[in-house]
Amino acid sequence: MKIVTASPIPSLVAPFTINEVLKLLPWLAAAALPLVLPGYEPLATQVFVMILFALSLDLLVGYAGIVTLGHAGLFGVGGYTAGILSVHGFTDPIFTALCAMVLAAVTGLAFGVAILRTKGLTLLMLTMASAFLLYEIANKATSLTGGEDGLQGVSFAPVLGLFEFDFRGKTAFFYTLVALFFVFVFVRAMIHSPFGWSLRGIRENDARMVAIGCPIMRRRLIVYVISAALAGLAGALQAQSTQFVALYSLSFELSGNILIMLILGGSGRLYGAFVGVPVFMFAQDLLAKQDPANWFLGQGIVLIVMVTLAPGGVLGVAERTIDAIKQRRKA
Amino acid sequence: MATLITILFFGVAYGMILYLISVGLAVTMGLIGFVNLAHGVFAMLGGYATVSFMNRFGVPFLLSLAIGCILVAALGFLLERMLYRRFYGRSELDQVLFSFGLILVSVAIVRIAWGPLAQPIQLPNYLKGQVTILDLALPAYRLALVGFGAAVIAGLWFAFDRTLFGARIRAAVDNRAMAESIGINTSRLFSLAFGLGTGLAALGGGLGADVLAIAPAYPLQYIVYFLIVVAVGGLGSIKGPFVAALAIGISDTACRYFVPEAGSIFIFAFVFIVLIWRPNGIMERR
Question: How far apart are CA B14 and CA B37, in angstroms?
Fold first, then answer.
């Protein structure tokens, strides 16, 4: 069992140091990507969207200890909300993204009330069932969603009325990057807040948290709703950047994939999503084109080997390596 | 009236298949507490084995079923000994990831070996056509399914309730430490129960090859139904999942017939309602 210790000062109020400035560097590097690798904006945009989605999942899986195999349901609700609104004439990107967040949060609340009462296998099954339910609704409500053909005719007005979504995908690139940055700052503040620490406590030992007077059901429900809203935002961003919503965005396949992406990077580590998603999507781009069977095989083997030999994903291995080096230096 | 009986009959046949496949999962979940998402893999392999022995080597249907069942049970036994038991003490997340990885590997292997298309099953002549009972024309295959399923279930219940092996399993489900302290070798019991469960799943997969089509996506496509049966029926029980499987089989068939435009929406909604009412399943023991 891991020992968690709360830092006395939430890092939001931590003093402004050179370290904080250094932490901005990766973001600036990402923003400079169109200069270095022109033409890769659409792919990078997809990576940003998936990182945001994986971050929302990390809140549940990594911090609150709620294993879900139906997170795509909430992603899809956000995507379809933004898409359907745009088809019916509401094309402001920020307004539709907010609507998507609200609707995904409401969906998360409705399902969360039922799902979080259970645990273990039943909880897992209900998360899956919630996504299957939403998938089936979208599949059958063809007049609203386009069913299996996907939602056609999605288009959005310029961001803030200034930046039009262009053919090269530059606007979408910066738009999603900015959204991801804000979400990252929010999630980071949240996991370092007392609320975030109480989530880790519930993950490690819920009976003790009850004993010290923590309302665990309410805490879990709150984080579920927040995570749902962020997943909905990711879905909306995908709808806006690709101008299309497909049933895949609600599928069990996506729920599984996003979990694998997160685990690959390392869950409960905040930066896991930033490592796992690019690695996964790069490998997918490389392998899945040749033969889907090889891609499944590779994914499965990596997953089994990782769980067996390298728990904690890429970041977990890195952490242990660094620890080992430090130990050796001390000795 | 005739329609209702036909729907009921199709639903029961479907429920039998769901039960045969899921009961092993219910027992191992209750016994070991391992979240095995890959249980559907064994049903799929049973289906592939049955179809292959029939189509490639001309083995009769029932014999193919038996061979498939034994082969998969042996595979399950070995996998439990070699891989599964490493994860018994691990977190639920690790178990989920491991079994999900197993699903992906099996999907890939099956796809490479048999191709991406569904494998049609060539039913023997005595299972083709219809049988008329009291003016109702019922398909022979499904009639055999119900009869055969009922026989297997009767045997299973007898073994569970009346034999020493069944008593040991029940004891270990109730209290593993106590069972060990009176000299039950739970480690061997786990392997045997796991092998038995996977064998039953293979039987269900092969027998139901005409109901749940045998294709590489099988374990991903139907896993949620198997988990529903176990969660609604209750872990560690073998009678709860039977009630759950029949209820789901019948109501799913009825929904598809009366409101085809709703698909399986009602089933999932129904599951939520049942589990809000009884979070630990319908047969929860107090």
Answer: 21
Decide if A128 and B227 are in contact by the 8 Å CB cutoff.
yes
B142: tokens are 């499904």
Is the model's pTM score more than 0.95? no
> Residue A277 in 3-state DSSP?
helix
Residue among A245, A224, A225, A237 at smallest CA distance from A67: A224
Helix/strand/coil for B10: helix
Residue type, A269: R
Neighbours of B143 (CB within 10 A): 16
Distance CA(A55)–CA(A187), nearest Å, equals 8
What pLDDT, in 10s, does the model give residues A232-265? 999 999 999 988 888 999 999 899 999 999 998 8
Please report how many Cα atoms fall inside a 13 Å half-sphere around the Cα of residue A136, on the Cβ side.
17
Distance from A117 to chain B by nearest Cα, in Å?
7
C-beta of residue A272 within 8 angstroms of C-beta of residue A313: yes
* Sequence-ordered list of residues with C-beta below 8 angstroms from that of B66, at least 6 positions apart, any chain: none
Tokens 């907010």, residue located: A98
Q: Exposed, middle or buried, A132 (CB in 10 Å: 0-12/13-18/19+)? A: buried
Place of tokens 């962020």: A230
Which residue in A125, A133, A139, A251 has the most chain B C-beta atoms within 10 A of its own C-beta, making it the best mutation to test that interface? A125
Which residue in chain A has the smallest CA separation from B231? Answer: A122
Beta carbons of A122 and B94 less than 8 Å apart: no
The span from the CA of A229 to the CA of A52, in Å, is: 11
Give me the count of residues in chain B: 286
Residue A250 has which token pair? 């609600």
Q: Do A129 and B263 touch (CB under 8 A)?
A: no
By CB neighbour count within 10 A (0-12 exposed, 13-18 middle, 19+ buried), where does B133 fall? exposed
Nearest to B40 by CA among B241, B222, B252, B236: B222
Minimum-distance CB partner of B228 among A129, A253, A306: A129
Q: For A18-77, what is each residue's pLDDT tens digit?
A: 777 777 777 877 777 777 777 788 888 999 999 999 999 999 999 999 999 999 999 999
The total of other beta-carbon atoms located within 10 Å of residue A193's CB is: 15
β-strand partners of B137: B132
**3-class DSSP assignment, residue B133:** strand
Cα–Cα distance measured from residue A83 to residue A161, given in angstroms and rounded to the nearest whole number: 18
Whether the Cβ atoms of residue A210 and residue A142 lie closer than 8 Å to each other: no
